[in-house]
## 1
Amino acid sequence: MTKMILLNPGPANTTDTVKQAMTRPDICPREQEFGDVLAWVRDAVTRVVHEGDAYTSVLFGGSGTAAVEAAIASAVPQDGRLLVIDNGSYGARIAQIAAAYGIGHDVLKLGVGGRVDPNRVASALDAARYTQLAVIHHETSTGILNPVEELGPLCKARGVEMIVDAMSSYAGIPIDVEAMGVDFLMSSSNKCIQGMAGLGFVICRKSRLAAMEPVPGRSFYLSLAGQHRFFEQHHQMQFTPPVQVVYALQTALQEYFLEGGENRHARYVANWEVLDGGMRELGFRRLLSDGMLSRILTSYIEPDHPRYDFGRMHDMLYQKGFTIYPGKGADRATFRLANMGNVCSDDMNDFLRAMAETVEAMEMRPLYRDAQGGERAD
Ligand SMILES: Cc1ncc(COP(=O)(O)O)c(C=O)c1O
């Protein structure tokens, strides 16, 4: 199989063994045998971010947004109020979900790529009687890593639950939900865990789930209480699961534990060092400064050379076997490169060679008209 190198922010490159895990004899997902696979996956998904027995996970057939929606719709009670931190498109999306359900909420708008200052969050939390705070861990729209571990104690001191969208950090950056004070953590099967798209999951405290009742007027399908209860009683998902995606995730999880969480993180950081070092050597400038970076995805400021054209650059790289991605929402025009998935430093070096050829072929030097770097200082 020809390997396309995906530098888009997921679905990410998978191993051949993960791809092969999808080719299996047909099975009815209501069989005990498949229920056992689901139970293993459910526990393993939890183990990625929790070593003890206090948390479990709830799986949904759907993309990552299904998991985000399930958490928001299920966690915020009818008389509750949600504070959403918005420093990028995915924070904004949580506010859209809350609005769609008529959930009382306020948005702490920090601007796309704006730094999350815990003191500002503390003041915002004190401004009303919030029951939940929602924050993105790795805001994939820019590549900023938000300081979730500093927000946990703020929430705990105020009796506020913390809901964390860890879509593009889960399994790529070590997370300990208990130590970080996370009450609900959402991710999906197709980013740093290196499985196939089709499953979203919410990791949460067992005690909270056991006591949870479906909130009237909210989603029927995306109900944490409903889905959890059904699995506990029947050893099955309530609605038809994406069977082959579950098998792929099982293999992806096995491979994650074989590699080890710290090693995976180290591989991604090594990928990033090669990729970002090479991009900067080629003259590209980042949107964000060093201290803000996830090192899993980077936004680069688009060249202002008249011959620059993202579509053309994308197509030329695609012909060479590399997928790059447009920017999202930042106040400056950007494009994004991710270094997650089953990729290594050699792949990054191959990409850099292709990028150098593309820059030359497009005759777009100098990339920027002004001589100075354009990274944001804050
Ligand atoms: C932080 C974050 N949240 C939510 C989503 C939405 O996930 P999906 O596109 O799988 O619904 C993404 C997707 O990239 C994401 O990066």
Note: The chain has two domains: 22-259, 261-361.
## 2
Amino acid sequence: MDFTAYLPNRDFDLRMRFQKGKIASFFQSRHTPPELLAERTRLLNESPTRYAAFDDEGEAILEEVIDLATSLAPVSPPSFDGLPPFEKCRALGKLWEADFLLMKPDAEGIFRLCGGCVCFPSHWDLGEKMRLPMTAIHQAVPGLNEALGRQINGFLEKIKPGISWERGNWGLSRSPERNLHPSLDLPRLDHSVSLKEVWWRLEEQSLVALPNSGGILFGIKLVIRPLAEIKKNEDARLGLIRALETMPDEMAAYKGILGARQRLLDLLQADGDPSRFCPRS
Ligand code: HEM
């Protein structure tokens, strides 16, 4: 894994940073662990409306995404025929490794969230974002709309179909769990964490324009690695230290890092066995 693509030795900033990729490689990975799909199936069976949502406005978009999924599947996927749209959305959520969100332009051309399946959210709730435009979806992210709101909307309006436009967001968590839904109230990072308790969490994202429906498919896949692995990679370690040192407080607070920032820096800078470190009181 090339950590430095996400952790360059540069001050923290908000950037679009898209690269071109292949739709099939992103959405039909041949390396998806079976236990990941089993976890998605369990979550979507136990709490369907927590992890999937659909608004009737998005039917044409969902149909186009299902056609895409069917055409990409290496073996014939389970049939979606006859299922109501919400159930189609849920069935696709069990088939794909990627979480997915469907965006539809409204009468003013503003993209709004009209459905999706998010089993592995990074501390946000799909239901709360439904029908919202991009700027409202991103309202919780300090400085994002000011820095990139116009660029994001412009990008959504003009992306060309047939390409997976890829970028990444990283964070740090106190749990290796894929599913960090806010209702689970999982432990957050603080000044007492040890190296073994911290994971670097990358959201690999893909945007795909859907030419027939005019919608957009947004996919999210996770890479979760122990902080100790980043520490062993000198370039990545320096990149993460620089990002932590230069991240504005509001952004660090949003990412759940603020109260742990100094501790994380100490852990990344310490020599030897970090488990012998005494936490600050
Ligand atoms: C097109 C370019 C986009 C950029 C540059 C971008 C950037 C970001 C960034 C920087 C964050 C904060 C993540 C973190 O630091 O942990 C974020 C959060 C988020 N983004 Fe995007 N994003 C983009 C597109 C989208 C799209 C298409 C959706 C679809 C709905 C989306 C949904 C979200 C959601 C739900 C969150 C979490 C918000 C929360 O915590 O309440 N983003 N995005």
Note: Strands lie at 19-21, 52-54, 99-105, 111-117, 164-173, 199-209, 216-226.
